[in-house]
């Protein structure tokens, strides 16, 4: 009888530990994208904030011209707006790091994505997606953007 009780206690402890490990593992694997600094993010963790995602490519002259403006926008709005860049060419990590350094990209770059809030890749570059605080795509902007234009667009969308 005593052995049966100890066995039940041991099995219960093992089951609780296995459950805790399962929950922890699930939380660690639950992400929508990884940035170049190897941070895992989910779109849902950013709900309540506005998000700007800019698609670019090295072969796209307007994309390269707008990088200083995107850097400026990111510096001005880090507290209430998230800014990310995403290579249209889906470069591997090493090439993406080289590109970030070569063009002094100062905002986080998405290295790989599992899910995106929009349905398909853009058909032209540069393209910038603005995602509202509710997690929905509010606007898709084509062409070069300035920090001022991005901020004005977001403020206008926020007032709707």
From TrEMBL:
It holds the Pfam family AhpC-TSA. PROSITE patterns: THIOREDOXIN_1 (PS00194), THIOREDOXIN_2 (PS51352). Residues 10-159 form the Thioredoxin domain. SUPFAM superfamilies: Thioredoxin-like. Keywords: Redox-active center. CDD domains: TlpA_like_family. PANTHER family: PROTEIN DIPZ, THIOL:DISULFIDE INTERCHANGE PROTEIN DSBE. This is TlpA family protein disulfide reductase. It comes from Paraglaciecola algarum.
């Amino acid at each position: 009888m005593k052995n049966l009780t100890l066995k039940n206690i041991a099995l219960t402890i093992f089951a609780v530990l296995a459950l805790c490990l399962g929950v922890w593992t699930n939380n660690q694997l639950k992400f929508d994208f990884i940035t170049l600094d190897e941070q895992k993010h989910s779109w849902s963790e950013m709900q309540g904030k506005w998000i700007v995602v800019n698609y670019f490519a090295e072969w796209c002259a307007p994309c390269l011209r707008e990088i200083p403006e995107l850097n400026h926008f990111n510096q001005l709005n880090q507290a209430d707006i998230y800014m990310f860049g995403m290579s249209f060419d889906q470069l591997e990590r090493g090439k993406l790091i080289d590109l970030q350094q070569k063009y002094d990209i100062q905002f986080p770059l998405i290295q790989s994505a599992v899910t995106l809030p929009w349905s398909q890749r853009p058909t032209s570059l540069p393209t910038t997606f603005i995602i509202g605080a509710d997690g929905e795509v509010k606007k898709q902007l084509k062409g070069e953007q300035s920090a001022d234009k991005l901020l004005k667009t977001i403020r206008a969308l926020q007032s709707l």
